[in-house]
Specification:
By secondary structure, this protein is an alpha+beta fold. The chain is built from ten helices and twelve strands.
Length: 325
């Protein structure tokens, strides 16, 4: 069976921007960082022959009375961005290694430094060399293919869930970030979960993404025109990122699956890899795997002074365990 047609579906052909190795993801772009940090971000740079060849944006904060470099709000990847130029693979590796070392050395001294690298960072040797502890986390990805192929490669159960959701719900785009965030917060309160998102910053990020036609809020509505689930995703030149999702009572995972499938199709039309931006939790792993997503590694580097390590370990003891990113 071919892919079903959804009510209100549009052939959305908004294009991604031109690729820039010094801003390899949407999270590296100045407008994103401006919104995600209230303008409080800095950039370490390395130049060669008067030309910038390396950039490492960072967000310095104070937490627990300590100076820290942490990931900004809704910013999933923010590793070194390097233009190593041409040459043999070995020469390019040596250039990347040297540029990364110089970028790290230009960072301010802080008690805690956390970097989560994007897909094109293939190693973290320079971080290890400069005293960082490194490890690997994972994300799900779906490479762009014809939509009929993507539909057929999914699990039968997932296709059936989407078919049933199409019969129950209609999809629509939301243009008001705060309508989405209010729905998100209501669902957290209903589940008695404490939200860690800064709603004000999230609103700025979503508004800036929509204004630049780089983001999309999708909602599923029931027969009473009430929103039962909604998602927010963004895209750059190579990838589309699934950043936020929320659902109300009565939707189960079916409405979310419907919205996910629409986002996956949109990415495929632009020839973009769809990145789930992490594994989520045990339930998410099973849910995402139904879309035939593949597991892809992401490198993380952490450098911490003793007091920061102790305080982080204490915080971890009080928080629910999540080994999955």
């Amino acid at each position: 069976m071919e892919e079903p047609r959804w009510k209100g579906e549009r052939n959305n052909d908004r294009r991604a921007p031109q690729f820039n190795p010094l801003a390899p993801t949407i999270f590296h772009e100045d407008w994103w960082l401006e919104a995600a940090t209230n303008g409080r971000f800095e950039v370490a740079e390395v130049k060669a022959n008067g030309r910038v060849v390396g950039r490492l944006p960072f967000h310095k904060t104070n937490r627990f009375g300590l100076k820290m470099i942490r990931m900004p709000e809704l910013t999933y990847f923010l590793g070194p961005a390097i233009d190593e130029g041409e040459g043999s693979p070995n020469n390019r590796f040596l250039k990347r290694l040297q540029i990364t070392r110089e970028l790290i050395e230009r960072l301010p001294r802080v008690s805690w430094h956390y970097v989560k690298c994007q897909r094109d960072v293939s190693d973290v040797i320079a971080f290890q060399d400069l005293g960082f502890r490194t490890y690997v986390q994972f994300t799900h990805e779906i490479a762009p293919r014809p939509i009929s192929v993507l539909w057929k490669q999914m699990r039968n159960k997932t296709r059936n869930v989407i078919r049933r959701a199409q019969e129950r719900f209609a999809m629509a785009e939301l243009t008001d970030p705060f309508e989405f965030l209010q729905f998100y917060e209501r669902n957290l309160e209903r589940k008695r979960h404490m939200g860690e998102l800064d709603v004000s910053l999230c609103g700025k990020i979503i508004a800036a993404s929509l204004a630049r036609r780089r983001g999309r809020i999708l909602a599923a509505r029931d027969d009473n025109n009430q929103i039962v689930a909604a998602t927010f995703s963004v895209w750059d030149e190579t990838s589309a990122f699934y950043l936020l999702s929320t659902r109300g009572d009565g939707s189960c995972n079916s409405a979310t699956s419907l919205l996910l499938w629409e986002s996956i199709k949109q990415a495929a039309r632009r020839n973009l890899t769809f990145d789930f931006a992490g594994l989520g939790n045990r339930g998410s792993i099973l849910h995402y795997s139904g879309f035939a997503a593949r597991i892809s590694p992401r490198y993380v580097a952490v450098r911490a002074r003793r007091l920061a390590r102790v305080m982080n370990e204490l915080k971890s003891l009080l928080a629910p365990e999540n080994y999955f990113y």
